[in-house]
Design a protein that fits this description.
The chain is α+β, with helices and mostly antiparallel strands. The protein has three helices and five strands; from the N terminus they run αβααββββ.
């Protein structure tokens, strides 16, 4: 498992989660509930890991909504901090941009 996701999981376990403004906008437009993403992060699959991102480590995770549909979620943690876990954005991936399993970008 990704060390970045493990690190982000700790504040999630403690309820220390923030949603970015962009994240709220995307969740609303995609009809995705925050609770389903928080509940499902441990079952998620890391798609891309950015441990050295300038604003702090972040990770793109393939998760599922309660209805079983795929959701890509970018989780981050502020640089030099141990929390909060930040839901940066979330969206429903499409097969025109992603492989059939939603784990690889199409070129």
């Amino acid at each position: 498992m990704s060390q970045t996701l493990i690190r982000i999981g700790k504040p999630i376990d403690n309820g220390d989660v923030r949603i970015s403004d962009h994240g709220y906008d995307e969740l609303s437009s995609e009809n995705i509930l925050v609770a389903e993403l928080i509940d499902g992060v441990k079952k998620g699959v890391v798609v891309e890991d950015y441990p050295d991102y300038a604003k702090g480590p972040c990770v793109l995770v393939l998760q599922s909504s309660f209805d079983g549909r795929p959701v890509h979620v970018v989780w981050g943690i502020p640089k030099g901090k141990s929390g909060p876990a930040v839901l940066v954005t979330a969206y429903r991936p499409t097969k025109d941009k992603w492989s059939d399993d939603f784990l690889r970008r199409k070129r």
